[in-house]
């Protein structure tokens, strides 16, 4: 089962990209968002990936002998899905959502910085979920305020 957990945590090797693996994990999440057919499917994917990711990331911490190992990018996949949840589709919103999620994932404003201290894989997933909530809300505000045409 360890091999399965590592494969899932690294998104089948995407996490081994030598530069900015989290960014590539976020791109996987964006691609997955593009193919999910309904908001219900997206919501289900977020919940399932969070649960599976918590387990797989916990195993990855033991495997890589470090907390929140770089190759474990399943949290970025889930975070990107949560960022785009119930936001309009289109290249403008997708690009802005990607940028906002990466920004909030890197700077980790409160309470994301506290959530990452939770033990094991749950902490790895929780801080990215919080970063995604921030990104989702800011994206909504930007789309409303600037009345961007998305399509």
Q: Which terms summarize this structure?
A:
mainly alpha, 7 helices, 151 residues
Q: What would you note in describing this structure?
A:
The longest helix is centred in the last third of the chain and has 27 residues, at 120-146. The chain has one domain (2-9, 19-146). Helix 1 (2-9) crosses helix 3. The protein is 72% helix and 0% strand. With 151 residues, the protein is mostly helical. 42% of the residues are buried. The mean pLDDT is 93. The chain contains seven helices and no strands.
Helix and strand arrangement:
Layout (H helix, E strand, L loop, with lengths): L1 H8 L11 H15 L3 H26 L9 H11 L6 H17 L4 H4 L4 H27 L5
Helix pairs in contact: 1-3, 2-4, 2-5, 3-4, 3-7, 4-5, 4-7, 5-7
Strand residues, percent: under 5%
Could you list the spans in which at least 5 consecutive residues all have pLDDT below 50? none
Return the average pLDDT rounded to an integer: 93
Report the C-alpha radius of gyration, rounded.
Answer: 15 Å
Specify the overall morphology: globular
Q: Which structural class do the helices and strands define? A: mainly alpha
Assembly annotation: single chain
Q: How many alpha or pi helices?
A: 7
Number of separate domains: 1
User: Biggest sheet, in brief?
Assistant: none
Give the terminus-to-terminus CA distance: 42 Å
Count the strands? 0
Helix content: over 70%
Which H/E pattern describes the elements? Answer: HHHHHHH
């Amino acid at each position: 089962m360890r091999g399965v957990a590592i494969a899932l945590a690294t998104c089948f090797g995407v996490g081994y990209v030598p530069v900015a693996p989290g960014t590539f994990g976020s791109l996987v999440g964006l691609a997955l968002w593009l193919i999910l057919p309904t908001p219900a499917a997206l919501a289900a994917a977020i919940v399932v990936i969070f649960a599976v990711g918590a387990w797989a990331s916990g195993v990855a911490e033991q495997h890589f002998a470090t907390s929140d190992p770089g190759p474990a990018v399943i949290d970025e996949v889930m975070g990107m899905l949560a960022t785009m949840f119930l936001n309009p589709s289109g290249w403008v919103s997708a690009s802005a959502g990607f940028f906002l999620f990466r920004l909030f994932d890197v700077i980790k404003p409160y309470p994301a910085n506290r959530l990452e201290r939770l033990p094991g894989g749950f902490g790895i997933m929780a801080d990215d979920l919080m970063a995604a909530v921030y990104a989702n809300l800011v994206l909504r505000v930007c789309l409303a305020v600037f009345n961007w045409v998305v399509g």
